[in-house]
């Protein structure tokens, strides 16, 4: 992700954090995948790294189901992190670029990446998967969701507020190949369809994979 694209995206999310919270705290569209993720983590007090946590909407959903989870949420927007802390006082949050998850000196039982891939290029998304493998404990679980379409269609998009942001589309084939190459087995694949900005149909691809020992 080029620096200017990153800076623009962070600035927009920082500016619109409260609006984003109002619109997207309800993550029930993804209930089936979150339940599958939780079921895969039968271990009590499982440690989870959540990247691009936003206002903590997914964090709260997970903790409502499994209050024993030990979640460390990260984001590049200070305003989003402040909201996440308010919404989830039992979780830990810190500023971190999702391209730098190898900065942690310990490994996790699971990594959840719900909304970061649209801001990662194809190369960065594949690298993230490899990095996630190195940061997971044996039998660790990785959750990924992303807008699915031809990667060549990635481009600048204008949101409802008039702000422009670069959105990357990703394809299931190369993501699954990257997962398998990094020692993962995909056990859950689903798609969520909804209407996006400008009444455009959007397909979110969801992949959940387990790391082989």
Structure description:
The structure is a single chain. The chain is α/β, with parallel strands linked by helices and 213 residues long. The chain has one domain (3-211): Rossmann fold (3-Layer(aba) Sandwich), CATH 3.40.50.150. Helices cover 35% and strands 30% of the residues. The protein has seven helices and nine strands; from the N terminus they run αααβαβαββαβββαββ. It has helices at residues 3-15, 17-24, 31-40, 57-65, 78-87, 122-135, 172-181, and strands at residues 47-51, 70-75, 92-95, 108-113, 136-147, 155-158, 164-167, 184-195, 201-211. Strands 3-2-1-4-5-9-8 form a seven-stranded mixed sheet, with helices on both faces. It has a two-stranded antiparallel sheet with strand order 6-7. A hairpin with a 5-residue loop joins strand 8 and strand 9. Helix 6 (122-135) runs parallel beside helix 7 (172-181). The longest helix has 14 residues, at 122-135. The chain starts with a helix and ends with a strand.
Number of strands: 9
**What is the number of domains?**
1
The oligomeric state of the chains shown is: single chain
Which CATH top level class fits? Answer: Alpha Beta
Summarize the structure in short.
With 213 residues, the chain is α/β, with parallel strands linked by helices.
Write the layout of secondary structure elements.
Elements: H1 3-15, H2 17-24, H3 31-40, E1 47-51, H4 57-65, E2 70-75, H5 78-87, E3 92-95, E4 108-113, H6 122-135, E5 136-147, E6 155-158, E7 164-167, H7 172-181, E8 184-195, E9 201-211
Helix pairs in contact: 6-7
